[in-house]
Amino acid sequence: MNAVAAISILASAALVAFAVRKRLPVVSAFSSVALLAAIAVLALSPADATTSVIDVPFRLSALARLTGVVLLAILLLLVVDVWLAEPAYNFFPAALGVGATVVMVLSVAVPLAIYGTLLLGLLIPVGSFVFQVHRNRSVEAALRHYAFVMLGGSLGLAALALTASLRKDQPAQTFVLLAVVLVIAFALKLAAIPFHSHAALLATEAPAAALALYFGVLVPTTFVAFAQILTLSGLLPAIVQVNKIQDLLLGIGLVSALGGALLASGAGDLRRLVVYSVISNLGASLVGLATLSGPGIVGAVAIMLVTGACATQQLLAAGALERASVLDQNGPSAARAPLAAAAFVAGAAGMIGLPPLIGFPGHFFVGLIAYALSPWAGTALVGATVLLLVAQLRAGISLFALPIETWRVEQRPVAGVIGATIFAVMLLGGLAPDVFLRPIAAFADEFLRALRPF
């Protein structure tokens, strides 16, 4: 199966990259070629092909193929940015390791295997680069990150293991409790409010590319894994029978959407603005998932994939702006890096979901179904979008406050070029959304069949 081939390519490449990581030109080019090869393998793979490795079944669904290609493309852009603009040799094996775990999370068909691989992706590959004590003040951020991920990981593993071992004739309350534990476990790993305190530290302590690796790649992967595990675990019938579980998921989503937007509107720097915007969009996606409806699921997954790309675009631009303004007391400004500033503003349009970009359909579906579920929920999502719009507009205006005659185009406009590339893809996707939404709709059908199996 080609998903297994992509995993093998990326895992082997990660080991090679680690061995030659200090030879920056070699490891940069090698990592780019490995990611391109894995993207090609996934893109050319037939949908719904199945196989097994050591009795572990793999299935490359249409959603897994789409998500894998999108997230590996983001990783490729991150590798190019680190290669040309922010050299850090440990990033390359970390990125390849993350790529291997992402493809495995998306293609393996056993809930426990999905969850265990996801924990590996959240802890080991990222930790090798994000938390370098000699480069950044990251000890407290590392401890909090590992604590949240391990706490959520322990709860989730216990819930899934018990679910797999229980007979179907167990009392409904048992499955309800396991579903609640699983929801809280994923809320911890996704940094949903009120479990978001480690995200603020990551925003200030981790390098921009590492932040993009986490919030642009691993957070969307975690959300998709959550939806897949719900589909495969057999817990969905219990959730639909007990409204309290649906209400818990809806409550976490609404609090994260509004709380993230409020925190973004008061953010004092560009990185925090982006991280809190991701948390707000994550909340909207959780609301879409909580509706247990086709449009809600399609919108939820679409929002997270677009948010990952836009977060990458904005975080790389923020890093370029910070580097360009090291000696400038006015802080990040378009005067020192106008192309990066333009990329940041373009990313804001996708983050909010403005038409005609591909982010619009997801926000529209979730908002529409939220209003159908509850006028209060729909109004809360609209309020969160307005707050995000205000926060992003304020940041854009501050970036372009200085007069044009003082501008100087950056010598290495890597973030600007990457931002223009992502924006072009968003625009093309908005003009032809079926290519993007059809695989997500196929997964939504599977989700609904698992929700009502009879």
Short description:
The protein is an all-alpha fold. It contains 18 helices and two strands. It has one domain (2-451).
Question: Would you kindly provide a written description of the structure presented here, covering whatever features stand out?
Answer:
There is one protein chain. The protein has helices at 2-19, 24-43, 62-84, 91-107, 111-130, 139-165, 172-189, 197-205, 208-233, 236-241, 243-265, 270-290, 294-324, 338-352, 359-373, 375-399, 414-431, 434-451; strands spanning 49-53, 56-60. The chain starts with a helix and ends with a helix. It is globular, with a radius of gyration of 21 Å. The mean pLDDT is 87. The protein has a two-stranded antiparallel ribbon with strand order 1-2. It has one domain (2-451). Helix 9 runs parallel beside helix 12 (270-290), helix 14 (338-352) packs parallel to helix 17 and helix 15 (359-373) runs antiparallel to helix 16 (375-399). It is mainly alpha-helical and 454 residues long.
Name its key features:
454 residues; mainly alpha; 18 helices
Proportion of residues in helical segments: over 70%
Main beta sheet:
2 strands, antiparallel
Rg, rounded, reads 21 Å
SSE topology string: HHEEHHHHHHHHHHHHHHHH
Q: Average the pLDDT over all residues and give the rounded result.
A: 87
Q: Give the number of DSSP strands.
A: 2
Number of helices: 18
Strand content: under 5%
Sequence stretches where pLDDT stays below 50 over 5 or more residues: none
Query: Cα distance, first to last residue?
Result: 31 Å
Name the strands of the widest sheet in spatial order. Answer: 1-2
